Hints:
Number of strands: 9
Largest sheet: 5 strands, mixed
Strand content: 15-25%
Radius of gyration: 16 Å
CATH topology: Purple Acid Phosphatase, chain A, domain 2
Strand order of the largest sheet: 3-4-5-7-6
CATH class: Alpha Beta
Distance between the termini: 33 Å
Shape: globular
Number of helices: 7
Structural class: alpha/beta
Low-confidence stretches: none
Helix content: 25-40%
Number of domains: 1
Amino acid sequence: MKVGVLSDIHGNRVALDAVLADMPPVDRLVCAGDVVGYNPWHADCVDAMRGLGDGEDWPDTEVPTVMGNHDRAVAATTPFAFNGMAKAGVDHAREQLDEAQLDWLAALPDERRTCDDRVKLVHGHPDDPDHYTYPDEFGPDLLGEEDVLVMGHTHHQHHEVYDDGVVMNPGSVGQPRDGDHRAAYAILDLDTMTVEDRRVEYDTTEVIHAVEDAGLPREIGFRLTQGR
């Protein structure tokens, strides 16, 4: 079974379009959270993960997804230590999403098992959904009964293969922060227990203009050109 692994889309429809167009055939998609925030296409990205989107290459069934901190803040108005850019994105998402989209976000779990329970999805860390688990913290001790642990939150693409399984972060679709501006995702092969980290170019200028048109902080768009 091949699985397309997404995380941290953050309302960036242009990047999501590019990722889904670039993705080779897979048996399933999964998402490690933060569908909304920062960029201006929150509703489109939520509907894409709900299997209700209108993109040419978008899924036609709901994508197993866990709740990220931005998702939680938008749906449940729970506090988080947001900077100005992040808060602006949360406020914009609350204004844009309809009741059904907000209900979908609010119902997302912090943890989810999929692919016959072989894959466990969390956003930050198995024990703390808000913890930033960077690659130097990866280790087999993070694994439980699952074969593969998928995390997001850091926007840093990385994976490690251990005797006990795989620990991975596919990176961020909509706002990479690992020095590479290209949209990030990964392909997980559960038959061979291998991971292919993938990057794809997209039109960051289009996003910059959309951010400005939406009245969001300009830095949200410009930082995309630097992968930070």
